[in-house]
Each structure stands twice: as structure tokens, then as C-alpha cells.
Amino acid sequence: MATAERIEAAAGLVHGAIGASPQICWPLLSERLGTETWVKHENHLPTGAFKVRGGLTYVARLRQEQPDIRGVIAATRGNHGQSIAFAARQFGLPCVVTVPHGNSRSKNAAMRAYGAELIETGHDFQATYEATQAIAESRKLHFVRSFHSWLLDGVATYGWELMRAVPDLVTIYVPIGLGSGICSTIQARDALGLKAEIVGVVSDNAAAYALSFEAGKLVSTNSADTIADGVACRVPVQEALDIIWRGAARIIRVGEDEIRSAMRAYFADTHNAAEGAGATPLAAALKDQQRKPGKVGLILSGGNVDNDVYAKVLSEV
Prior knowledge:
Rossmann fold
């Protein structure tokens, strides 16, 4: 559990490497939602997404506990891999990242630019994830999975920043991939003693966490085909679900057209690029019939979207 003391310590490390991200109240976005709306701009971080926070705290802890470590490996659709590659370079470790075939070209290029060796394997994230264990064992690399308490320590710093700056938020919408974002936001809220409702968001096409939340047990899906690759999960993590069940108000599913519309709305109202996963909170807030009156927080988790994909989305009516 990320306590106030652990989050404060993580913030010292994170802010020393990348600084804090802004939270901005955009007038046009507030008009669109009919209430004061604050966006947490994780798309403004050096890697273009929130996960770098967790990568820094994880690799720092790993270096401390295993000083002779040979290197790290991570399975990713892009943002987790960028975070580990960025952190590994900071701490002088070799890094390998594995991605599905057909992964985002811009995310692949960014991971290579941070010094990572990139391996394409598997048809989707889950297949890549399963193949990575064998690669880690054969090359004697430490496998950095996408959900771990050391990651949560760092990721919790974005919720910490947001809720310290705007402590009277009533509802905060957070995308759910494997769960580090929403779980760390819950932990930051609880550490600060605040009462904001935390609402998770998934794609209709990658609904494993919503199905699991509703069923009260792990539910996997056969596919996770969505423009929001950051939430393209089909096998949930039990540890994440335990935190979500205790601390989230609900999970909302949004459709592909709603995600694309939210990507366009972000550009129209704020001139910010939001990748599919980063746009899901806005899509959810726009359709949430249970939203209470009061200030809204949106986690714009990342802006790493390929040019051709984004151009097509913006051109749609």
C-alpha cells in the first residue's frame, strides 16, 4: 500500500528526474461537461505518458536491492516499455522491451531512442506478455511486469499532485489497462484522506476489468481490439482488482466512436493530443449518468498516438 510517506518519498525521486505535470482547468472542456473540469496532463511528461513515474521508482528500488542485476525486460504496448527504458537508462541498466506485431510505430521508435532493444512477438499484449517470461529466463533478465507495488509508489504521485492542487474534486476518471493508474489514484486519495469518487474506464472492446468488477471475480476476454491500446487488456490482475473493488465507485465502458470523439474534443477544446486510452476518461465523463454535481478530474494518461491514426481520427465527423 502506497502510504503518504511512501508517496512523498517517491515524489522526491520522480520530481528530481522529470518534474511534475500540470493540472489545468480548461474553460471549453468545462462547458462541454457542464462543470468545472481539471485535466491532469500526463501527456506532458518526457515519455508522453504517466508510466514513467512508476518506472523510476521500480528501477531505483531494483538497483538498490539487486546491485548486480544484468538488465531488465518488459512486455508492453508502448508506455510501460518507454517508462522502463527511460528509467533503465537513468540507472545504467540494459533494457529489452517486447511488443506485439503491428505495435505503434511511434512508441516503438521512442523505446529504441531511450536505448531499449525491441523484440516483436505475439499477436496481442497477452501473447507478448506470456512469451516474455521465456525470453527473460533465457537471457537472465529481470522481468518488470506491468503491475507491482513498486510501480504504484511512483504512479501514485500524479494523483497526489492533482488532489493536493485541487482537493475538492468530486469525481476523478481514470483509464484501466492492467490497473496501476486507478489503483495508485485510489491509494493517493486515501493517503490524503479525501473523498473523491474514483471511476475506472475501459473500452467496450476490452472490458475484462468491467466484467470482473461486476462479477466479483476474475473474468478474462478472448480479445481486446481497440484504438485505445493502453487499455487493451484481456486478462486482469487479481491484486489490482482487490484494490479496485475496495476503492472505486464504478467502472464505465466506452465505445470506439466515443473514444474517437473524445480525442477530437481534447484537440478542439485544449489543443492537446490524447491517445485512445488517454481520451477514455473524457468519453466516460460525458456519458456517466451517475456523476455527482461538482468538480471533475480527468486523467489524460498519455498522448502517444501514431500520426496516421490521429490524422484519421481528427478528420472524422
